[in-house]
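Notes from the pairing session

We agreed to fold both candidates in a single pass and log them together. This is the raw record for the first candidate, unedited. Please don't reformat it; downstream parsing expects exactly this layout.

Candidate A
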Amino acid sequence: MSTGEDIAPKVRSILDAARERATAREREGGERVGVDARSLPEAFEAAEADGRVPLIAEVKPTSPTTEGERDDDPVELAESMVAGGAAALSVLTEPEHFGGSTDALERIRAAVDVPVLRKDFVVREAQLDAAEADVLLLIVRFLDEDGTDDLADLLSAARERGFQVLVEAHTAGGVERALDAGAGIVGVNNRDLAKLEVDLGTFEAVASDVSENVTLIAESGIATTNDALAMRAAGADALLVGSAIMDAAGGGDVEANTRRLVAAESDATADAETETHQ
């Protein structure tokens, strides 16, 4: 269980806002959603069969840990990521700190044919109904606190609605909690929410003993093809990348940024073969 002292102030602010934020469906007393989800594991398998690194590319206009903001149309950004080879998309719906919205999520999901993850800070069951998505994020460290629901209960409630669930952890203990709750898709965040520092060694250290039956996703700090190769070598079934693709400060080409990362393994193989024949 987390405490207020072991989370960075910026992250504490996000969690406090998540607790206080009511969804439109909550305010209006709307019915709970029902989702016919596109399969995330199947999307990863299709990417691998096509020689691509399975990648969840993230539509993230801004964040507390990046400089600048992208104000491009989110649908155009998402379509560019898919054109660049992304196996799936992550869409921020947190409005106050990341500039996201459920409207953007719904528009993107209608425009693409890959699985779409709703990236937000869900802390109670009613927030599951804010929008339809293929995959929902639950963060171990943000749950089982006062004012939040239990991880296992939320996981079950999300699945009842048809969502696939990505359960995110940062420590071995967090991964154990995710697995004990029944998670089948686990994300290991290389960013420490206590210090907001990134260590790519986190994934290997935390995920090394996880069963092969669990889909493992490496998150945060993946900026280069070497980073992508390192995470894959450490056992990541897929990568989740936001800032390096969005490149908010530089307004980078998201299609080219995506293509560079998904081609990391095929490019490395081609380079090795070239060296062998020289």
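Candidate B (folded immediately after A)
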Amino acid sequence: MSVSLEGAVDLHVHSAPDLIERYAYDLDIAREARNAGMRGLVVKSHVLPTVGRVDQVNRALGEEILYGGVALNAGTGGVNPEAVRIALELGGRIVWLPTAWSANHARQERRAGADSFVGQRLPGPDEELSVARDGSLLDETRAVIDLVAEHDAVLGTGHVTADEIETVVSACADRGADVLVNHPFFRITDLSIATQESLADRGAMLEYCAYAVDSTAEHSAERVAAAVARIGPEHCLLATDYGQVGNPPVDGLAAFARSVVDAGLSETTVQRLIRDRPADLLGL
């Protein structure tokens, strides 16, 4: 039996158009979510803001089911407060710190011999992006956090280092900004449980993703269930990070939720992780 998606929200979905082939276009995924009774999906792109394009889908469907944001990579000029301001004023809900263009991600990929990530060119050593230095936020990062707080939006930690995540979460706590630690078990950002507990204690929300389970060695639904039990479900949510060819986000969320139930969490708890926690974070 699958977990019900009635009222569920997935904060991390990739869709077309993109630089690579995706499972489906925005409109098709939105229809699937609506048919499943979901309350919403947040569309993320590594290359361009998704605000605006989600509005077109919502207008076509006659209801608000897709939400957008902006990831701070090359397509926005990096950690660019003006790009963030525009995205938030257009209704963006999540601002993601650098992903593929973060120094953390880029260095790991270059060491592995890669020169691109999901179709986007990886930066060279003189182009890669950091959000903090020597434990202090860069001015542009601080400005981004201020904008997120002012617009009651959410800051996603992206693919930056564990030390940078620590600094960002502390700054968000001081500023009163909501912060979402993206896929804390993903191979690029794999955080210890002790670190995750510390981040949750400072107000961060932990986002456990299905794709991280698929793509990270020694990761599993059991690991997710154990983390939620230890950290507390009030600090956690489930998302998919799906949209790859062969990874449908809607069906994928139901399957991931069921796998976490099978791993030991109660169905009531998992319903809250896919429904209440993400909806609260988006202010729905």
